[in-house]
Amino acid sequence: MDRRSLLTAGGTTLGALAISAVAGSATSSAATGDGFWHGSEQERRNLKTFDELDFDVFTNQKWARLGESHTRDIRVHWPDGHYTDGINKHIEDLKFLFIFAPDTNIRVHPIKMASGDLTSVTGVMKGTFTRPMPLPNGNTIQPTGKTFTLDMATVGHWRKGVMTEEWLFWDSQHYNTQLGIA
Questions:
Q1: According to the model, what pLDDT value does residue 14 have?
Q2: DSSP string covering 97-128
Q3: Which SUPFAM superfamilies does this chain map to (predicted)?
């Protein structure tokens, strides 16, 4: 995979459609007196696992723990339209994001939804472009020192408490603009 392709092509329209599809099918949730919608126990566990995935495993680069939320043969769809198979490839791709922005983190999920074996979570990914970004041809893009705040969405398909397939969405043009490389 061309590492630069991780940063190319948009996905916000698809992300909005995916979130709408999950939200529109959320029939297994029940309203409670606290004003929030609460799903089944499994839906709550999947969302809690996803919080742990982004807030601790991803943010702190605890790659050995990714198997707590992903199957060994997970298929991951990226914003540029390509997909990868297998947890090891997914870890390799995630590590790339930290090469040039080692402080990359996700600390909030403003929207979380679950319906059966599907979850949809929005997050805010932040970081600073402080180290050279390697390119496939062996060249690098020198750091700009610019910070980024990127709205993103993830849709996950779960089986027995782990994701079997994951769709990642963010506006790559906005990301590249914030990095100072667009």
A1: 36
A2: HHHH-TT-EE---S-EEEETTEEEEEEEEEEE
A3: NTF2-like
Distances (CA, A) of 31 to 41, 79, 146, 182: 14, 33, 43, 45
Q: Which tokens belong to 123?
A: 């997050």
Q: What type of residue sits at position 84?
A: T
Q: What pLDDT digit, counting tens, does each position of 119-144 carry?
A: 999 999 999 999 999 999 999 999 99
d(CA 81, CA 19): 17
pLDDT in tens, the chain (182 residues): 444 444 444 443 333 334 434 444 443 344 444 545 567 999 999 999 999 999 999 999 999 999 999 999 999 999 999 999 999 999 999 999 999 999 999 999 999 999 999 999 999 999 999 999 999 999 999 999 999 999 999 999 999 999 999 999 999 999 999 999 98
Residues 6+ apart with CB under 8 A from 60: none
**What tokens were used for 172?**
């790559």
Write the Ramachandran bin of 41: left for phi over 0, alpha for psi from -120 to 50, otherwise beta. Answer: alpha
Q: Which two tokens stand for residue 44?
A: 């709550």
The span from the CA of 33 to the CA of 40, in Å, is 16
